[in-house]
């Protein structure tokens, strides 16, 4: 007999099923081109990245086997955080096990009940999930709308001890991004603490792949940079980089995400360190990934598809309806092309979309093939 507890869970699942929003786990390895993955430089199988993982594996073993505050913090972790600090020109840094945990740690432990958090309306779930869970007040500004952010700063800045402004650089579901120099300008007028999530900007933007903040020359103004090792860096784990040792010391003392979890494995650290070295020299590849994505957007718009005009590697094709989105995803998959079918609640209601994640393995012939599948589905 089903318990009341399971009945409650089942009825929630039924509700999702009825609206076409049920999520399931699938093994999707039988595709010729994977445009869901965030491995923008196709480095996870690169010989130097595998060698980096192997070296760390052989030297330090398969696991760090302890929290970093016990014996889990190994030379491979120290080397990696130093490489990241040099790359992004920040004097202090910490590795976390995932980007999700890093964001949870930052937004859970740094703000106090006397503070205010101002976050972009479409901020990643790893941040959104923390809002409202503590005594810290928060407000969301309209997506990328810095006039709205300014208005909220103007109305609220003096009422709180510290104001935090939190945004992604390249947004994970839309591939669009804010005007970072304008945020830097606002920070001069209202000295808030700026947290920037560069999960998707890293590698693909900036003259050394250092991210959108590097490209838009505001790296020194960002107080806390967060990024994952699980995307362009072809591994797993994350980093928090700051201008201040006080912030990293505080997290080391108060962040349960860091203190009470076995630290990321040596092979992950070794792989990310090797990928980082490759990415720093890969700006021609990054340019070509973005150029291909720009051409794809142009083809989409001339075919009457809804997308945006940004120049990042993430291209949304907005269909609105979740059933259409899944159907078209499956049509592409029949041709061996794997793309993301992203539906609410990951994205707002009526904005279900295909998410194309461009990488170094996608070329002009793929664009033609994809457009011909999209257009024939449209004419069906
Ligand atoms: C903007 C953003 N932040 C954080 C994360 C979480 O990173 P991780 O996959 O390392 O947990 C993601 C991953 O989807 C992301 O897109």
Per-chain topology:
Elements: H1 4-18, E1 33-35, H2 47-60, H3 68-72, H4 75-87, E2 92-96, H5 99-109, E3 116-120, H6 125-128, E4 137-141, H7 146-156, E5 163-168, H8 180-189, E6 193-197, H9 212-215, E7 224-228, E8 238-242, H10 245-254, H11 256-259, H12 266-279, H13 283-302, E9 314-320, H14 322-334, E10 337-342, E11 352-357, H15 364-378
Parallel strand pairs: 1-10, 3-4, 3-5, 5-6, 6-7
Antiparallel strand pairs: 2-8, 7-8, 9-11, 10-11
Helix pairs in contact: 2-12, 4-12
The protein binds pyridoxal-5'-phosphate (PLP).
Q: Outline, from the CA principal axes?
A: globular
| Assigned CATH superfamily of the largest domain | Type I PLP-dependent aspartate aminotransferase-like (Major domain)
| Unreliable residue stretches | none
Beta-strand portion reads: 15-25%
Total helical segments: 15
Quaternary structure type: single chain
CATH fold descriptor of the largest domain:
Aspartate Aminotransferase, domain 2
- Integer average pLDDT: 96
- Widest sheet, order of strands: 2-8-7-6-5-3-4
Describe this structure in words.
By secondary structure, the chain is an alpha/beta fold. It has two domains: 23-41 and 283-378, Aspartate Aminotransferase, domain 1 (Alpha-Beta Complex), CATH 3.90.1150; 47-279, Aspartate Aminotransferase, domain 2 (3-Layer(aba) Sandwich), CATH 3.40.640. It is built from 15 helices and eleven strands. The chain has helices spanning 4-18, 47-60, 68-72, 75-87, 99-109, 125-128, 146-156, 180-189, 212-215, 245-254, 256-259, 266-279, 283-302, 322-334, 364-378, and strands at 33-35, 92-96, 116-120, 137-141, 163-168, 193-197, 224-228, 238-242, 314-320, 337-342, 352-357. The strands form two sheets. Strands 2-8-7-6-5-3-4 form a seven-stranded mixed β-sheet, sandwiched between helices. Strands 1-10-11-9 form a four-stranded mixed β-sheet. Helix 9 links the parallel strand 6 and strand 7. Helix 2 (47-60) packs antiparallel against helix 12. It is globular and about 60 Å long. The N and C termini lie far apart (46 Å). The mean pLDDT is 96. It binds pyridoxal-5'-phosphate (PLP). The site of pyridoxal-5'-phosphate has 14 residues, from helix 5.
